[in-house]
Design brief:
- The protein has 356 residues and is α/β, with parallel strands linked by helices.
- It folds into 2 domains: 164 residues, Rossmann fold (3-Layer(aba) Sandwich), CATH 3.40.50; 164 residues, Glycogen Phosphorylase B (Rossmann fold, 3-Layer(aba) Sandwich), CATH 3.40.50.2000.
- It is globular and about 60 Å long.
Length: 356
C-alpha cells in the first residue's frame, strides 16, 4: 500500500480533493495524509481535521522536509505548492499535479519548466490533449499525463450534502451561475433570454442570479434599482445575493426547475451542474467543455447554442413538469450508476495513476 499525500485539502477543501480522498480511501489502494500549506495555523489545522475526520484521514501542518518523504504528492490545482518545493528544495519522489483549467497558467508552465512536475492529470477527455500540448510547448519539456479524470461526487457523502428532490414546482425558477468577474460566456446577450422566457407567460417567476459580478451588473443593472433597464419591463422578480453561500445554493437548486448555466469556456468540469443534477434540477448548458461529459442532449439535460434555444428549453421545463421530471430522473440515474457518483466507475482511473 502506497502512502499518498494531498496538498492543501483543509477547511476549504475542493470537491476534487474530497472526492479523491473518499475514493482512494474506500478503494483501499493507498494510505492518505493531508499536508496543509506553510503558514497555516492551529485553527486551520483543527478545521481541516474536523472536515476530514469522517473519512478517517489525518491532516498536519507542512514542515520543510515533508515532501521528500512522500511517495506521491498530489495537488489539485494549488500552484502554491511549487513555492514550498523551491523554497526548501523539498522535492517529493513523485509530484502529480491536476490542471483544473483547459489551459495551464504561467505558474504551472514555469514549474514544469523547472522539472517540478512528474505527472499531470486533466479532467476533460475531449480537451485534455490540447491542454498537455500547450503545457509541453510552452514549458519545452515532456510530461507523463492522464486525461479523462472524472471527479468523484458522492451524493451520500456528509461533505456533499445534496438530496434528489422528485417534486418540483412548475414555476420557472431560473438560476444564473457566473464567476464574479469573468466575461467569457456562451451568450453575451444572456439577459435577453430572461425576457424571452417570461414574456410569453403572464405569471410571476423568480430568477436567482448566484455569484453576481461586475460583468452582470454592467449588463443588467442592479436588481431592484429603478434605474435598472429591467425595471417594470417584465413581470419578474430578480434576486441577486451579493455572496452565494453553499446553503443558499442548495436551497435555490432544491426549488428550481432548471439551471441555465453560462459557464466560462476555460473550465473543464462543472461542479455546479453536478450539484444541480443531484438535486433534481435539469441543466441547460452552453456548448462548453464543462458540460460535454455531463449532458446527453434531450436525455440528461440540454445544450443551448443560442439565447433563443435556452429560452425554449427553460420555458418547456417550467410549463411541462412531466418533461422536467423525466429528464431530471434520467440525469440522476445516469450520474449515480454510470457517472461521477459511482465509485466503481471513477476508481480504475485513480488506480492507473497510482499504479496499484
Amino acid at each position: 500500500m502506497k502512502k499518498i499525500s494531498i496538498y492543501g485539502a483543509g477547511e476549504n477543501a475542493s470537491y476534487e480533493e474530497i472526492g479523491a480522498i473518499e475514493l482512494i480511501k474506500g478503494g483501499g489502494c493507498a494510505k492518505i495524509e493531508v499536508l496543509l500549506p506553510e503558514g497555516s495555523g492551529e485553527l486551520e489545522l483543527h478545521s481541516a481535521r474536523l472536515v476530514l475526520s469522517s473519512f478517517g484521514v489525518d491532516a498536519r501542518l507542512y514542515t520543510p522536509g515533508d515532501f521528500e518523504k512522500c511517495e506521491a504528492l498530489i495537488s489539485f490545482g494549488r500552484p502554491e505548492v511549487f513555492s514550498a518545493i523551491k523554497k526548501f528544495s523539498d522535492k517529493p519522489q513523485k509530484m502529480i499535479y491536476g490542471i483544473p483549467e483547459l489551459l495551464p497558467t504561467k505558474t504551472e508552465i514555469a514549474a514544469h519548466s523547472e522539472g517540478l512536475i512528474d505527472e499531470v492529470f486533466v479532467k476533460n477527455r475531449s480537451r485534455g490533449v490540447e491542454t498537455i500540448k500547450e503545457l509541453v510547448k510552452k514549458a519545452k519539456r515532456g510530461v507523463e499525463f492522464r486525461a479523462g479524470y472524472v471527479p468523484f461526487c458522492n451524493p451520500s457523502s456528509d461533505y456533499f450534502k445534496l438530496q434528489f428532490g422528485k417534486r418540483k414546482s412548475s414555476d420557472c425558477f431560473h438560476v444564473m451561475q457566473n464567476t464574479p468577474d469573468g466575461g467569457d460566456f456562451c451568450f453575451p446577450d444572456h439577459w435577453l433570454t430572461v425576457a424571452k422566457i417570461t414574456c410569453p407567460h403572464p405569471r410571476t417567476k423568480l430568477f436567482t442570479a448566484l455569484n453576481w459580478g461586475k460583468n452582470l451588473t454592467k449588463t443588467a443593472g442592479t436588481p431592484g434599482d429603478v434605474r435598472s433597464p429591467w425595471h417594470n419591463l417584465i413581470d419578474t422578480i430578480l434576486e441577486a445575493p451579493s455572496r452565494a453561500s453553499c446553503a443558499l445554493e442548495k436551497e435555490t437548486l432544491d426549488k428550481s426547475s432548471a439551471l441555465l448555466h453560462f459557464y466560462p469556456k476555460e473550465e473543464a468540469f462543472s461542479f455546479a451542474a453536478a450539484k444541480a443534477i443531484l438535486s433534481g434540477t435539469v441543466v441547460i448548458g452552453g456548448p462548453a467543455p464543462a458540460f460535454v461529459e455531463l449532458i446527453r442532449h434531450g436525455e440528461t439535460g440540454f445544450f443551448a447554442k443560442t439565447g433563443d434555444e435556452a429560452a425554449y428549453y427553460t420555458s418547456r421545463l417550467a410549463w411541462e413538469p412531466f418533461v422536467q421530471l423525466k429528464v431530471a430522473t434520467e440525469a440522476y440515474a445516469w450520474f449515480v450508476n454510470e457517472g461521477p457518483g459511482n465509485a466503481d466507475v471513477c476508481l480504475p482511473w485513480w488506480k492507473g495513476v497510482l499504479h496499484v
